Amino acid sequence: ISSRHPLQWRPKVQKILDMKTPRYQHDYSMKKDLDPDKDRVKLKQLNRQLKRESKAAVRELRRDSDFLDQERFKEQSEKQARLRDERVKNFAWMEAEQATINQQVRKGQGLMKGGGSGVAKKPRVKR
Predict the structure, then answer these.
(1) Which residues are CB-neighbours of 65 under 8 A, at least 6 positions away?
(2) Half-sphere exposure (CA, 13 Å, Cβ side) for 87?
(3) 3, 22, 91, 127: which is deepest, by most CB within 10 A?
(4) What is the DSSP string of 1-68?
(5) What is the distance between the alpha carbons of residues 66 and 76, in angstroms, rounded to a whole number?
(6) Mean pLDDT of 65-84
(7) CB contact at 8 A, 111 and 104
(8) Quick one: pLDDT at residue 83?
(9) pLDDT digit string (tens) for 23-61?
(10) Residue 116, pLDDT score
């Protein structure tokens, strides 16, 4: 029992990183084409140009597609509006015809009978 010690916090051990001097070049350039092999430099440059051109082509195609889609939608909506106007005009004409027939039936005078679709027939004599 005499060998026991009271509980204590462990001492914090701080690990210190070794300082190293960085390696850098005084004549560093941000250019991508720093390569002693001129063919490889030219190939990289052409690949970058190809990638730029292909992205531009895709962008142009997307814009053309959007424009064509807008034009197609405009034409469809104009056609639908034209057909709707024609339908409304036809329904109005049919309603006017029906109204005329109904007025004639109401007047009577033997021209038309109820239902308004047929000419009035002579009354049958029942035997």
Answers:
(1) none
(2) 6
(3) 91
(4) -TT-----PPPP-PPPPPP-PPP--TT----S---S-HHHHHHHHHHHHHHHHHHHHHHHHHHHHHHH
(5) 15
(6) 97
(7) yes
(8) 97
(9) 777 777 777 677 788 899 899 999 999 999 999 999 999
(10) 46
